[in-house]
Amino acid sequence: QVQLAESGGGLVQAGASLRLSCAASGRTFSGGVMGWFRQAPGKEREFVAAISWSGGDTYYANSVEGRFTISRDNAKNTVYLEMNSLKPEDTAVYYCAAGRNEFYRGNYYYKSEYQDWGQGTQVTVSA
């Protein structure tokens, strides 16, 4: 019911920064949450970051904590992922996802919390 479109991916060298955007349209759900996941070739899709409706609560995978920042602008129906100090192991297709309900007890980590997904944007980090 929510259409998501990621943008901002690209090819960068290690240590560089990228800012991903995810624009939501359609039947956006007031009070919903947003997350970012990524999937590298041959690997499962994994949690990267999540944010509550108000933006007051954010969560990060250990591998990106301190380097990535998730934020949202509800007036623009957009969520962002600022990625700094990129490493080759960050190379993956990055997906944004939308969930209808607020988080509790760590459920932001699970893909099942999110009902709508974007098509992904490729991030490639060269050594």
Walk me through the structure.
The structure is a single chain. The termini are far apart. Strand 7 (68-73) and strand 8 (78-83) form a beta hairpin. The protein is globular and about 40 Å long. It is mostly beta strands. The chain is 0% helix and 50% strand. The model has no long low-confidence stretch (mean pLDDT 94). It has strands at 2-7, 10-13, 18-26, 33-39, 46-51, 58-60, 68-73, 78-83, 92-99, 116-117, 121-126. Strands 2, 4, 5, 6, 9, 10 and 11 form a 7-stranded mixed sheet that branches. The protein has a 4-stranded antiparallel sheet with strand order 1-3-8-7, with no helix packed on it.
Estimate what percentage of residues fall within beta strands: over 45%
Helix residue percentage: under 10%
The tally of beta strands, per DSSP, is 11
- The separation of the N and C termini measures 39 Å
Shape: globular
In this structure, how is the largest beta sheet organized?
7 strands, mixed
